[in-house]
Amino acid sequence: MKKIISFAAVMALCALTAAALGLTPAEPPAVGSVAPDFTLTTNEGNQASLKEFRGKWVVLYFYPKDFTSGCTLEAHNFQADLDKYKAANAVILGVSVDTAESHKSFCAKEGLAFKLLSDADMKVSENYGSLMEYKRQVEGKDVVTKLSARNTFIIDPQGKVAKVFLKVGPAGHSAEVLSALAELQKQ
Fold it and tell me: All domains of the chain, ordered by start, with CATH?
């Protein structure tokens, strides 16, 4: 009996140590929980905080990288539906680990009129359980890069998580978010 208890205690200690060292990924905030607040630099070079958008619905979407095909498609679809989001009293905030300068160029090139936020230190992506590792080969060696995972959170006007989308596909995602937003606003 002592061996089982000791083994369980060691396993629990290992799990706690790994979490303290940041070795385990954070879980996304649950529906109904208060959305983790943040302040990040926008594509315009200004600071934006989640709390600034209280009283509005927020579509907080995380995406891996500016100027890539899937991320560009997803951004274009949000842009095409921007008037529908405004009519629903919702703002779109895109987050990636790219720099604010990269976001500025991406918005200019792709004609995006919503805010993109730079999470260069990866803390917001981590707090939202939206940080992933991307492995690739460079000159025969594995190179690991951390990127924002393609997840979306709808945050209600009171600042609570109302809907969570994990590992989304970029093509039809804006329509999916608009549909969920309409259902949430009926409640």
Answer: 28-186 (3.40.30.10)
Long-range contacts of 9-15 (CB under 8 A, 24+ apart): none
Active site residues: 71
In whole angstroms, give the CA distance from residue 21 to residue 45: 32
What is residue 29's three-state secondary structure?
A: coil
Task: Note the pTM of the prediction, 2 decimals.
Answer: 0.84
Helices 69-80 and 100-110: crossing angle in degrees, nearest 10, is 60
Q: Report strand pairing: 47-49 vs 131-138.
A: unpaired
141: enclosing H helix or E strand: strand 141-148
174's tokens: 């804006």
DSSP H helices, the chain, are 2-20, 69-80, 82-87, 100-110, 123-127, 173-186
Which of these, 112, 99, 93, lies nearest to 153 by C-alpha position? 93
Structure-block tokens of residue 181: 């937003």
Beta strands 57-62 and 161-165, pairing class? unpaired
* Mean pLDDT, rounded, for 157-186: 96
Round the average pLDDT of the chain to a whole number and report it. 88
Q: Which two tokens stand for residue 30?
A: 């649950």
Bridge-based pairing state of the strands 57-62 and 90-96: parallel
Which residues 6+ apart lie within 8 Å of 85 measured at CB? 59, 78, 91, 92, 178, 181
